[in-house]
């Protein structure tokens, strides 16, 4: 499995979308490193949490369009926190939860598919249910992280009951959309190294 992850990571880009996704990945890495020296540690920590998803989307061989959307979405989600866009733009939080949870549910589906836990994506209705479960689980974990940050790190993190439930509903809807897509089309590239 490690060998396949590495093979997908080192695969040269073959399309403009591949190049764009790799450019977003490179920019994310540079900005995270720069943030260590220029931003408060909490902002660096938030930005750095995006890097695993940005790298994993390439390592598991997501289709190039989905790879690009994952990279942009995850880094925009983290950057929106640093730039305080969630407070400045009403509803932005729900949009980001919908899209970000959706792309992370796609990553979870591919990982669960490769591990033999669920039926392959692109066939059957199983991805719809599994994506919803993964999306709601990811949403719950994220909301617990927000609560922990608010309770023990800084009260600048906005946490209310309504916000938490709304975020989880938006995330669940994003995961449902990805589940429907995954039940009809493969989420991975045809030329990826199998995990």
Automatic annotation (TrEMBL):
<protein>
    <recommendedName>
        <fullName>DUF2238 domain-containing protein</fullName>
    </recommendedName>
</protein>
<feature type="transmembrane region" description="Helical">
    <location>
        <begin position="168"/>
        <end position="187"/>
    </location>
</feature>
<keyword id="KW-0812">Transmembrane</keyword>
<dbReference type="InterPro" id="IPR014509">
    <property type="entry name" value="YjdF-like"/>
</dbReference>
<feature type="transmembrane region" description="Helical">
    <location>
        <begin position="68"/>
        <end position="89"/>
    </location>
</feature>
<dbReference type="Pfam" id="PF09997">
    <property type="entry name" value="DUF2238"/>
</dbReference>
<feature type="transmembrane region" description="Helical">
    <location>
        <begin position="128"/>
        <end position="148"/>
    </location>
</feature>
<keyword id="KW-1133">Transmembrane helix</keyword>
<feature type="transmembrane region" description="Helical">
    <location>
        <begin position="95"/>
        <end position="116"/>
    </location>
</feature>
<keyword id="KW-0472">Membrane</keyword>
<feature type="transmembrane region" description="Helical">
    <location>
        <begin position="23"/>
        <end position="47"/>
    </location>
</feature>
